[in-house]
Design a protein that fits this description.
The structure is a homotetramer. Chain A is α+β, with helices and mostly antiparallel strands. In chain A, about 30% of the residues lie in helices and about 25% in strands. In chain A, the strands form 6 sheets. In chain A, strands 3-2-4-1-10-9-11 form a 7-stranded antiparallel beta sheet. A 6-stranded antiparallel beta sheet of chain A has the order 5-6-7-8-12-13, with helices on one face. The first copy, chain A, has a 5-stranded parallel beta sheet with strand order 18-17-21-22-23, sandwiched between helices. At the C-D interface, helix 1, helix 2, helix 8, helix 11 and strand 18 of C face helix 1, helix 2, helix 8, helix 11 and strand 18 of D.
Chain lengths: ~475, ~475, ~475, ~475
């Protein structure tokens, strides 16, 4: 029931067989759909001629049978799903971005957020560059194309570009004849590689996309690694590896990623179960049943139940037919009630441990607690499988502004009252490493410990301010 | 992961306040969407003038904000969702059916299947009646209107019609000034009544629709009961009650209904958990983890885990973005794999008890077992929370024909091998009463014990045969 | 520039070859599109199984390549276009109407308006009939099906039905194995027959539809004639012929029909040219140029120019891209100016004879005169190729109500001033026979001389009144 | 009945009032729709923030009421319609092009074709520029933005850019606070200026757009002129005027422009009538009637009739409902017959002079002659109101390649036979100046006399060749 906006998802495939690449990308993107529901796109490279279809909507909305077929055949494909925002210009910001330059066409898909995008953009504009979108992706494309002028090869241009890009980025790009994947030196966002039975190489934000299309998982890209595949074989460039300690976004495990994915060696499902187990040890409760908020609280609830010995119950039914076009109820009806329904026979007269992945503003949480009380729950003990949110994210997670974050505004006791819980327990910040057995996390949203320089607001120029004043449709920090 | 087609869902509301009836019906139908995804419709009665919007698609697809608003205001509304089939004429069969007759307009929504529809239809046609659709609903409308000629009131006409209708039907209909709900004397399909805080009366196929809109559950309609509400108050006609022992469709508990619904006094979730507990007692397994097939096997899996003491695990992630418009993969890709993904960290190296609600053809089941094996499961012990399907249903459930049902074609041992399981266990037929503590079930699909006369195929005329030969879009047995 | 709503158009084909019937109907309906732009439909009969597609929109909007193809093949097809109105229920009133009855399926397309529809409807409802739509077509279908019970054949049933139907109707209907065309005994609406090179028989509202598909025009149906074609050959039933003097709607020549059509032996283009010639003789003007309002005034303008010896000029350019979805300008912009533009070089400093087919409310006419004056016309002499409208039509023409008709409200002098013309001349009522060389016209809208009994308003019941109060979407007098 | 693809149309408005700019642009673009039916777009500038909506389709298809409203208000708007081609990428090439650069946002609309686009593009790409589209418009935008780095103002940047641009271009562009219109120094494409009653300044490709919105025509822009309007008032820059003799595209008068437009001082309708008069003098015919092919041959037919004294007749009815989505008939049906129908009563037994604006491949012309013969015409004397096409156009007219042009392949006698005419007469090349009383034409398509250097094919690189091999959706020479 998280209200955080999800990230983007990227995918790429380079195959020795020309057939079925658009189809495979379609199914892989469907498996990555949880990372972004605003727009979807596929770029198909047929011997240097890249055809792109991208539009606002789910993968299954953007691609009808006819449109998918119209992409034709080719040896390389790149796909992208983008998180949900609104506005008439969102079509323009859909990816993959296809550009033409003197060495041919290029298609680029990006997950993450640059921290120096404004500086780079200003530099480029001062030299006469024009921008069609407001995405970081177009900045990255420019930098790569500029470096291409000096570089020996497109992969060398990507490497040179990485010297100038700062922040979070997992990239998949198609040059006329190669597929290139690159992960930023901090490793903020996941990116993995797999192989198809026919020898095709695939890259994806999460391993679940490999499973969906029958690809074997090979390994995660190292932070800073660039892998290039083409007719010539595969090149691995690790010149940018080891610059920084890895700082994978902790929220990939806690909320973003799909439970069946394995990221940087650790199963997401396992990490969430462990979060539940930690909560059971640190914040036990004398209760009758453990219930997770679907879908993001379920894995942790299993862990809490296993560790505590309390029975696990199915306390909610989520209406699975509420999609993008569903009409939100007005004030007279309870929005949460329409999406989520408590199972009275499971909770009536019981003391319930309720597990969710996060509390952002607190309003949704309060309504969920209320659903349980209306269904007859005697007590509700709220357990949250993440530490409290206290800071904005500059690496591609759309965390609410501080003035909306309940943890920034209220004390622990006040929050417990506001959400109407009998008790409240967060995952301790110091337990984060236990989730995966590693401490290579970015946890800046919890502790303010940013692994990079962060943009200062004062740099924003008049034009940007106007744009945001106008509630501009384009988000500059997408990815 | 059931492959049975779901039934229809009906809803009706009669309110002292004119505002918001279309909205409330929209949200109630959304809560009943699991009962039918083919088409949706709302009829709004504004002082005798009934406006209807109905079309192919989910509730959220048929009704945009503008279309919902265009229904206007009124005191009575009737809604319907219909199960999924295909074909260009499905729009014509969408409900509620609105008709004009000499006493005014009538809107009718129906869940179920008449067993004497062909006879009634032939009778009506022989007297010069014309039919626009191939639904039972149009037959019911005709019979009611004909009886209206002789009846004192519309509710009396419904009562007279019930003398002629045979089979399964839960009806909600709006006359110019009244809302009428009626349930067939066998009580095959559920139908319940609720009340809104403002005094509005509502009827719905399942109680989950009442919860969604904040209505209080009052009670289920008795088999044979007719309830009429309007400005005059409420009339209850029980003249058709008690004719037969109740025979509620057992599959409502096992598969159709939403777990948070309570039908004829028993929670669906509880009934499913009990099925799991029975399976654990009757078909125990020396295993490491119990896993349900999402979403229909989850409740029984909880019950099996609780009874057996084995841990409950989340073994699958279901892709929730695969909707009506999703392009089915061709033969080279595994369809089940794209919808369902095994969580390797949960099953690797383990002996797994796998719970699903039914095995129809066996092909899907075999693929799911396979997913677990590919993810490293050591053993897979299949447990099915229903007895084997052996017979067709004439009461509104779209059970596959005998030549496709695996239980009709193969022995128990063969089935176990075909689905590649290490062991197999069905819910014993004699345990059905334990699910709800009552034995008032129709279990004809399991035991061939039909509570009514059933249609004989020889009655089908040339025209019908042609129609079915042409794989006609219209299904005559919808509802 | 007429503002009268157009009629419906009907088409039917019965072919010895199964292929291409849907295509031929599509092209024929496109040629009849001027008779109705609200909705379009095709019914394709494949050996008794009739598939129908019909929807709101132009023929080219309703039928995509896929939808047209999905009709499949067959030996008989029936098509319909319907005039433009608005409302969510117009889809329901789209034709052909397909019904099921005990002898099989029937598809019916109708152009015209019954004068006893309410009486028949009331009769049918009193006997228990239900109506889905508010069209006369459904009444006709019922009457035919009822008569079928007593008749030897479907064509006999049609003949019997004609004894009960009063008013205007040109029908094309498909029974399981025959195609039947029938024209009412007054011959209000046109209907003709043609033959394809492969021996197929076609029926159409106008001969232009025959030309479009390469069919040879055979002859018009006689008033009252019924023609039946099928495997058995062709049957002609003239038992209803000669009951009344023919009274073809005069407005078919003046406005409705396409100029290239020939109706009941007379070219529409010729009739309009003759109207222009008559105007030139009866209402001469000392002018420099003769200009027709596109497109309906052009033929008469040619005639006026030829008779008067004045040069014919192209005085207006009509914007041909303004279709159904064009957004009407608000009050600040001139609606007529956006659709029609005066050609300054043709009219500047000149005295202009302006020809249009009718003046209904006068507002559009005034604006057109104004366009000429703004473009520099010195004088504008308005000539109208029809007599003034004074009475409502009960035979299928949607003439504005008397309170809106300028000729009912103002004197000739006042009208001349209101439209800002220097002089005004109508076609004399007594000249109507000169248009075609026959006096077999219905000219009731001009002279109030109705050829049949007309419906009295007092018969309208409460239900109807409510409906019209609600500006009900369904028009009861369509067809 | 011309089969030449039409050009683009541009529009711009700068208003002292914020309201209604989107509406006015919508209606102006509708009046320019004949110049391009592929795509349409509007950019609305609200104090520097430019919102753009552009898509494939007619103006009335791209802009629904909601979408038009969503543009909001502002002081400057730019609009564009684009000619028709096909392909999934045409959406990307729709205009106005909106770009972001360091001085703010810019919206650009362009009609014409650069002859040095490839050279400029190559230059830009070599310096690291990236291109999203394949249009000349993006090249122009780049050049302007680059010059902006060195220029005092945006209008100065446009002037500097004009030193580098070669070929045909009529531009309208919005900077954050100004509206700028510019016409290439040869004046290949039209561009005029008007004023609204409220003081707003408007620019449009043709004067008919001014008429539609009630603007007064002020004057045509001079070749090479740049006009800038904004809060500061109006600036006129004529530094590029007088470089070359004016060479307006002759085909604007003969075919492209709307007859009610006045271009560079001459009425299009008058020019076409004069062409007809010249034909009557040079190629007289002993005939009974003069008939124009709708719509492009009608004006010339009037001229021919007037000069020759022969009567003008309406010989064809054009089906006005055949739009973008109409399904083209397959080989068995005559495509021309479905669009165009001969009026038999006008041509039967007569000797006909048939006037059209051009003969390109000859196939359509042959079919039209055939229609007349089938309708009974005794003789058909073809007269063409243009000289024969012999050369490709590099300035924005999509003339067929030489291998398709009938005049390049056959002798005059052969053409006469191929189109099945009794005689044939073209407009003499030397008569062109008589059309407008000026000889400032580009007539390269007739005489090969190109006013500028033309691109040599050898410059095309591998990438381009591949693109065209793949029948790439994007046309590089659009505008």
């Amino acid at each position: 029931m998280g209200v955080l906006h999800e990230e983007c998802g990227v995918f790429g495939i380079c195959s020795p067989e020309r057939a079925q690449l658009a189809d495979l990308t379609y199914y892989a993107l469907s498996a990555l759909q949880h990372r972004g529901q605003e727009s979807a796109g596929i770029a198909l490279n047929d011997d240097g001629i890249i055809t792109t279809i991208r539009d606002v909507g789910l993968v299954s909305e953007v691609f009808t049978t006819d449109r998918l077929k119209s992409l034709g055949e080719g040896n390389i494909a790149v796909g992208h799903v983008r998180y949900s925002t609104t506005g008439s210009d969102s079509r323009r910001n859909a990816q993959p971005l296809r550009i033409n330059h003197y060495k041919g066409q290029l298609a680029l898909a990006h997950n993450g957020n640059l921290t120096n995008a404004h500086i780079l953009r200003h530099e480029l504009e001062s030299m006469g560059s024009i921008f069609h979108s407001t995405t970081d992706t177009e900045v990255i494309a420019y930098i790569i194309v500029q470096e291409r002028l000096r570089a020996r090869s497109i992969e060398d241009a990507v490497a040179r570009a990485m010297d100038r890009l700062e922040g979070a980025y997992s990239l998949v790009l198609s040059s006329p004849s190669k597929l290139i994947a690159a992960r930023d030196p901090h490793g903020f966002r996941p990116l993995c590689m797999g192989a198809m039975p026919n020898g095709a190489t695939v890259f994806a934000s999460e391993s679940c996309a490999l499973d969906a299309i029958g690809a074997e998982f090979i390994r995660d890209l190292l932070p800073g690694e660039i892998i290039t595949v083409g007719n010539h074989g595969m090149d691995v460039d690790r010149s940018h590896c080891g610059q920084f300690p890895q700082t994978l976004c902790a929220f990939e495990y806690i909320y973003f990623a799909r439970p069946d994915s394995v990221i940087d060696g650790c199963s997401v499902h396992t990490a969430r179960q462990r979060a539940g187990r930690i909560l059971a040890r640190v914040h036990p409760a004398a209760a009758d049943v453990v219930i997770g908020v679907p879908d993001s609280g379920l894995d942790a609830a299993i862990g809490y139940a296993a560790e505590s010995g309390l029975p696990y119950g199915i306390g909610f039914v989520k209406n699975k037919y509420i999609g993008r076009t569903f009409i939100a109820p007005d004030g007279r009806l309870d929005k949460v009630k329409i999406k989520l329904s408590a199972v009275e026979s499971e909770v009536k007269g019981k003391s319930v441990v309720l597990i969710d992945d996060s509390i952002v503003r607190g309003t949704t949480c309060a309504r969920i607690v209320n659903l349980l009380r209306q269904a007859g729950a005697k007590e509700v003990h709220m357990r949250v499988s993440a530490p409290p949110f206290l800071n904005p994210c500059y690496y591609g997670t759309d965390i609410d502004s501080r003035e909306n974050l309940i943890a920034c505004k209220y004390s622990f006791t006040e929050i417990t009252q506001l959400i109407n819980a009998d008790s409240l327990g967060y995952l301790p910040l110091e337990s984060l490493p236990e989730l995966t057995g590693s401490n290579e996390f970015c946890s800046a949203c919890f502790d303010g410990n940013y692994p990079t320089e962060i943009p200062t607001d004062t740099r924003k120029d008049r034009f940007e301010q106007q744009l945001s004043k106008k509630k501009a449709e384009d988000k500059t920090t997408a990815g």
